[in-house]
Amino acid sequence: MSSQHQTSGEAGAAPSRALRADAERNRARLVEAARSVFAENGIDSPLENIAERAGVGIATLYRRFPTREELVAATYEAKLAEIADATEAASRAPDAWTGFRDCVEYFCAVQAENQGFTSAVIMALPVATEVSAHRERLRESLGTVIRRAQEDGSLRDDFVLEDIALLLMATGAILRVTREAAPHAWRRLLAYQLEAFRAPGDPAAPLPTAPTAMQLRRASEAQLHRGR
Fold first, then answer.
1. Structural domains in the chain plus CATH codes
2. Which of 23, 130, 144, 191 has CA 20 to 30 A from 53's CA?
């Protein structure tokens, strides 16, 4: 009798394990698809595109991630941990201005590769997630980077944390227009901005090469075509 019960129980457990494994595979596929779609087009991309790329139905997506915010949190958790680690390292740089400059350049380089980065950092996400802890760690270490550069006189006193968000928004707008025709144009704006952030009297660094008129024209034409 006990042998029959055990056999019956094991038979019932097998489908449950299979369903759980299938659900985990679907979740992993959705996160991987979201990572690609958000990087290419931003976090406001249609969720249907993510489900399609993952090879699942939209209902499956909503079962795994009832809100867009939960999907964003799952997608960017590892990247935000990596960025928080890099910012903490910058906060310990021997030269405070170098730490600040490297940190800002790193953020912009990440954004150049990932259209959803800035929004993922700024938007409200579920609080009971690891991503919230990474964002708080990022915010604290970035505050240290800024404070050290201001205390040693290399960063202007009126610079605030929110200025980095504004810079990322500005470079993001340039990236959307110039990504194909002049993919490094954002670096010139960044160089100008870094000089504007410097405390008065510090020597200016050389600027990256400006995009050509032809590159800018092609970028503008491509933007018009995308809007049609």
1. 14-66 (1.10.10), 67-225 (1.10.357)
2. 130
Polymer length in residues for the chain:
228
pLDDT at 65: 94
Of the candidates 67, 83, 75, 84, the residue with the CA atom closest to the CA atom of residue 39: 75
The whole-number pLDDT of residue 222 equals 67
pLDDT one-digit tens code per residue, 75-88 = 988 899 999 999 99
